[in-house]
Amino acid sequence: GIIVKTVNEEDRIQVFGYSDSSGTTDVFTAIPFRKKQEIALYEYAQLSSTVPQNNRLSMFVAVICEDNTIVNIASTTALSGDVTLGNTFLQGRPQPITAGGVNTLSLSVYTTVHLGSNEEDLTGFRVSSTNPVGFMAGHACGQIPVDSPTCDHMIEQIPPSYTWGYNFISSPLTARISGYVIKIIPRYRGTTVTRHCNGMSEMQVMQDIPFDGLEIDISEQVYCCFRTSRPCAVAQFSKGQSVDDALKEISENIGDPAMVWLAPVGQFVNYVIFYTGFTSGASPDGFTFGEFANVIVPADSFNPQMIRLDGNLLQPNEREWTEIFCPPNNITACAYGRYVNLTGSEGKHNITHDNPSGRLTAIVYGWGNQKGYMYPAGFALDPIGEIIFSLFVETTRIGERSGPFVVTIIRAGDINVNATVDLQIQSASGLISGVSFATVGVANAPGVDIEERTVTVMFAAGETMKLESIEIFADNEEEGDEYFNVNLVQQPGFLLGSPSSEFLIIEDDTIQISLDPLTYLVEELTIDTYETLRGTTSAPIREITEIRITDLGGGSATGGVDYMSFNEIITLYPGNTTFQYRVLIMADSEDENDEMFQAMITLESGGGVIINDQADTATITIQDLNRVFFDPVIYTPMEEQITEILIIRSERPVSSDSILRVYDRDGSTATRG
């Protein structure tokens, strides 16, 4: 096998393989190695044709691209073929392939597995691997149709089954007259195919097509549409030149069998790049009977003023395009097609759509003397053949009282059928360490945070997103973050994308109510005054809440004497973050020490709130009247002094501007004046 890599991973290339010898040719489009996280097994299917003679093998080749790749070959019929590693037979001899069983090989990078039969058409053989492989399918020299007197080399690289689709369009092959052959490989048993070709009055429905493939002979060169009930692989085969010559008066030997992978409509792309002018020593004159490209554009992307070949409008006149009619509606065109004559224009070409969201496809083919080639110009490798479920959550942190938490389940890939997936809601206990876990149990039971349950989420065909609500049960307990888990359950029939499991955290969003500050120093005045007690909440109040504020008494201050006793309700409204209460401090004229009392808050009503037990009590200290005095009280000035300074002090700093009157007292021995 040959593995082609770019030196710079940012660079993009397209690779084609060309095989040519005397009287037999074909071309294939190389498929990029693409590993997807959600794919556990990459599945491929053989497409080939009837074996005409012993030395012409129906065969497939798998090129291993990574070490430790496990390859399983599942057969439906008995055959004895060569399974080779490089040029060495396994155990020194050809290995028989078990009919109806699975043959398993463990292989390393650059290994090539080749399997061929000189007795059986291997179409429908299945190969699966733990890593992507380069899977080449075809025939050394196969007949189309059966018992055709001539054969030709046929080869295509087959994409993995997760890229297979539902809707396919085949196109007429210019310069050929006898029609073509379609082969359809179903991904699953019980698949139905509906066919409609231009010119047909009715659709043809084929139920439960064979698992090893359905072959359909299209007797005319016309556009045909194929709609399948489950993902399928489809290839188009040109017929041998002798079939055409049988319809002519003079044999022309134009073309021969060739095969092309038909990309499903879901894999159409915005542009394709391809090459014409294949020649070699065996065919020095190239493909003298013409080289062509068939272009197909879905109806929702069709605008002939936006479709270009090598920068020029391919065909701006809509009437020069052919309408294509597809099931289930064969009245309105589902697509438009046109061929392009590329004979003599050797080299690289491109077909583009000016609209970035426009889609198209093309197959390229050429005819020589008793030889021909066909290959797809390009296609996407999106996972439209697999149902892939994944989860989406806007945040992994949930407020305890933020209401039901919504999980989004996303379906990608194959959206054409009904599908279900189970969503589990469960404790995260044992899955992570060092954290607290949400308590699970019966809904609304005391102390329960979530209800552990499994929900079956049902998707109808075409649906890509579902929402599932998870109820979080709130409480008024002060607690830390708690963890739980939601995950999608893997079952046969679909894949899990990323992420398929999430750890979610319930944040304790109980609002705490506190007194703040916790200490007050009040100066007793000569008249009654008020002191304002203040409080805060840890978050805005969500609903009307009532708290009670009460004086505790028991301190040195006496209720009703030093302050007015209180036992009142304070109402907090939604949005409040603070509150206050005014306490009356009563004045007296007694000379006394500082006195103290306390105030406490308690919760009366309201949900989602608690009283902070570390800040539910405030202490209020009442200081007696501030005393002022002379210091010292005795002065002995000398008579000759002009002045004496008298010093007046207070017990503590005065709390406001104060005015004192100082005067001399009568009756002293000194004479005033």
Key terms:
mainly beta, 51 strands, 673 residues, 1% helix, 6-stranded antiparallel sheet
How does the SSE layout of this entry go?
Layout: E1 16-21, E2 24-29, E3 42-45, E4 58-64, E5 69-74, E6 79-80, E7 84-85, E8 88-89, E9 96-97, E10 102-107, E11 112-117, E12 126-129, E13 133-142, E14 152-157, E15 165-170, E16 180-186, E17 193-197, E18 204-206, E19 214-218, E20 224-238, H1 241-245, E21 258-261, E22 271-276, E23 291-298, E24 307-309, E25 312-313, E26 322-325, E27 333-341, E28 347-353, E29 361-368, E30 371-376, E31 387-392, E32 397-399, E33 405-413, E34 419-427, E35 436-437, E36 453-459, E37 465-470, E38 482-488, E39 495-496, E40 501-507, E41 511-515, E42 519-523, E43 529-537, E44 545-551, E45 567-572, E46 578-585, E47 595-605, E48 609-611, E49 617-623, E50 628-630, E51 648-650
Parallel strand pairs: 31-39, 32-40, 35-38, 41-48, 42-49
Antiparallel strand pairs: 1-2, 3-12, 4-11, 4-13, 5-10, 5-12, 6-9, 7-8, 7-11, 13-14, 15-20, 16-19, 16-20, 17-18, 17-20, 20-21, 22-28, 23-27, 23-29, 24-25, 24-28, 26-27, 29-30, 31-33, 33-37, 34-36, 34-38, 38-40, 41-43, 43-46, 44-45, 44-47, 47-49, 50-51
